[in-house]
Design a protein that fits this description.
alpha+beta; Aminopeptidase; about 30% helix
Length: about 180
Amino acid sequence: MTSAASVRRVRLHEWREVRDLRIEAVGDPDASIAFLTTTAEELARGDAFWQARTAGAAMGESGAQFVAIVDDAWVGSATVLLREPGSRDHLGQEVVVRRADVVGVYLSPAHRGRGILGELFAGAAEFAAGRGTDALTLDVHTENLRAQAAYRKLGFTPTGVTFTSVIGPELEMRRPFRAAVPG
């Protein structure tokens, strides 16, 4: 099935949409093994938080949020964060070469299996490649088999790195930009 989604980077004035989609995402039944926050935590954040978050996602050079829109409804999102050499990653490890980590991946259940996830990752890859990285990296809970299968379909493979986070055991997956992405 093909996508009828428009995928683009979020815009500065869209903080309410960013907030609403994030609240929807963490409220998904699979959120306990996909996100580091809860619906209550996200609802407790004030407007200034969402405005600042959206500003960085819309205009920042070290990160960008991409959204999928179908018939004016926001149905998916993926954020790419650039990690600079010499900095520490989310595991506390020193970053040796610039890398692009994808976080906050969400696609509403009614729109899964339509190719939209691939389009979100294409936007993230274009952003990251234009800033000197050669791959996308992400973490996924070891029990989130649905997400792992979706990522594998898009060319991601496990790197062998595993760790335990606040949500439990996770594994790292990576996709070089030269890898073919199925349609």
